[in-house]
Amino acid sequence: GLLRGELRLSNKDHSIAIPLRFYESPENNKTERYRFDFERSGAPDWVLENNAMRVVAAPARGGRIQSIARRNPTSSVTSPGGAMRDYFRIAGASEPVPATLNTAFDAHWIEDPASPGIAMSGRFPDGLPFSGELEKTVRISGDRKIDVAYQAKLAEPSATAPSMITAFGVAATDAGEQGTQFCWSESSESTEAPKPNGGSGAAQNAAPRHCEAFRANAVDIRVPENVHSLEVRNQGQPALAMEWEEGSVSIKQAAASAELRLEFAPSGSAPVRPTVSYTLAPGGI
Q: Cβ neighbours of residue 114 under 8 Å, at least 6 residues apart?
């Protein structure tokens, strides 16, 4: 957790005290948790950290993951937009609406030594053509896997219930085969998490692989409906694997980043509980 201290500087006429915060690194793959206002916004971030990574969640800013970073050496996994950004596809709107961007979520720690995490909950904001509640949790499973679960529930049954999108932003480079690649197995079987040498279990088992190169500001990449896992590969960097149980995935390409968008639909007043996991490979590709 965090240790608090103070640095005092003084001379004959003046004295100043500077508050300090020290982080005590976790041992034996244990996940530590703490709250700290990194942006000095008045709303503290909620942090899960172990020897392999740091996950910073911002309940007060849409309940999203502000950043995910690898440790030793430190490198960012997410783009500046972060992850767990929520959109709704509303009838008549040309693009998905980022409806919870400014919604403040309630949060509490998940007390589970085997899989500690953060639970966040909030109501859909006013002004939408529907009302309801959204709950989402983020847990660390093992030392390099992040499990995210959603529960969306509309207040009233609706024949025009909107589909919901959770987005994970990654930095991307437009350089053909030397740039960012989005890869999945061409079979209907889910791929495994990346192995220490950077390859996936599915690739090592000789399963056919299909890769799409990132192209800046190009059309969205559509992942086939029978696929339930995806790898993001950047030259010389560890791979990121995404796995999901239900819904469809598309990849929105911007100038220097991409959003991995998982779309699912609340069915009337019955809650849906889609889950998605992200696994960080320990080595480069």
A: none
Q: Tens of pLDDT along 35-45?
A: 988 878 888 99
Residue type, 262: L
pLDDT in tens, 142-198: 889 999 999 887 777 665 667 889 999 999 999 998 999 999 997 644 444 444 444
**Nearest CA among 140, 171, 166, 170 for reference residue 279:** 140
| Strands (DSSP E) found in 116-233 | 117-123, 132-141, 145-154, 163-171, 181-185, 209-213, 221-222, 229-233
Q: In terms of Cα–Cα distance, which of 140, 102, 141 is closest to 118?
A: 140
The rounded radius of gyration (Å) of the Cα atoms in the chain is 20
DSSP 98: -
Task: Please report how many Cα atoms fall inside a 13 Å half-sphere around the Cα of residue 265, on the Cβ side.
Answer: 13
List the structure tokens of 210. 């299909």
pTM: 0.82
| Total number of residues shown for the chain | 285
**Spatial distance between the Cα atoms of 167 and 142, rounded to a whole number of angstroms:** 23
Place of tokens 């339930």: 228
- Burial letters 171-188, b for 16+ CB under 10 A, else e: bbbbeeeebbbbbbbeee
Query: Tokens in use for 263?
Result: 């779309």
Q: What does the angle CA 260 – CA 244 – CA 61 come to, to the nearest 5 degrees?
A: 50
